[in-house]
Give the backbone structure.
Amino acid sequence: MSGRVEELDAGHDGKAKSVPNGDVEEHGGEQAQGALDRLMNEYFTDELLERAKMRVWEVAAAVAGFLVLNVKALVLVALDLFRLLVPPEEKSFAAQLVLVTGAGQNLGRELALQMSRLGAKLILLDINEKHNLATAELVKTEGGEAHAYHCDVSDQEAVAAVAARIRREVGHPRYVFSNAGTYEHKPFLSHSKEDILRLVNVNLLGTMWVAREFLGHMVKHNSGHLVCISSVLGYMGRQNVVPYCASKFGVKGLTEALAEEMRMERRSGVRVTAVHPFLISNVSDVKPNLRFPWLFEVLETSDAAARIIRGVRRNQEEIFLPEKLKPFMVFSKVLPRKLRRLFGDYMES
């Protein structure tokens, strides 16, 4: 080979001309570069490059946000663990107006008596006027102050009327304990229409009517505490208490949603607490058969009241009775239903 190539010239004479190999390579490179430039100009416009930059920044911001979120989560977990070891300072009930529904007996009466001993001024509501007056007398016998009002919390108009009287005669309560409730233990199909209406009207709607009357003043002044007695059966459904579970699930939802509403409206001074007791000794028609009774202990009414008051004074958003149930209840919500049933069957020996 002579090291030269023959190439037809496109000129007018039609004769072949000899072109050096280096010139061909240089000419081809220029063509490739030109094609690449045209491709870049066609597809990689300034707008496209700007969009790419924005996308990179978005991804970087998302990653940074996720890292910050995890740091905040770790801080909150650390604070919770710290509060287990060093509880916050407890609020004082001294000279505070405290309203208790269902105050005529059992847990309501015990809450009233114990808070009176802490200096609270009591406003007592109950559908049973005789029992309610008896609680007021017990408070007064111990040197406390109590104002008793007859009220059926399931009746919205009755609640509104008695609330107006309370505001006029006593004042605005800073603490409201929605404790009034009713209970039925039997298969769902054995519940009459009246049974179901009573359970929902007292347990759920009664809680709403009471909150609706007294929450407004709390929000206006960014100060107050609403405490709603729910149940462990507001966390997990069980047989023979279907309407009761439905009503208590509603109370849990009410408190959770209200707490979120107060947070979003920047009303940090208004607290909302849900109380989830397992079983209190005054419930006589349920005899649990449990593998670990030390875990699901049945509390005496006085003990339950004391634990509720302590939790409220510490501004806890959820109070489980007994307290050791909390991690089990919270953890159970992330499990598939079949696994929850498996563990539930195991716990009930």
Observations:
- Residues 46-85 form the longest helix (40 residues).
- The first strand starts at residue 4 and ends at 8.
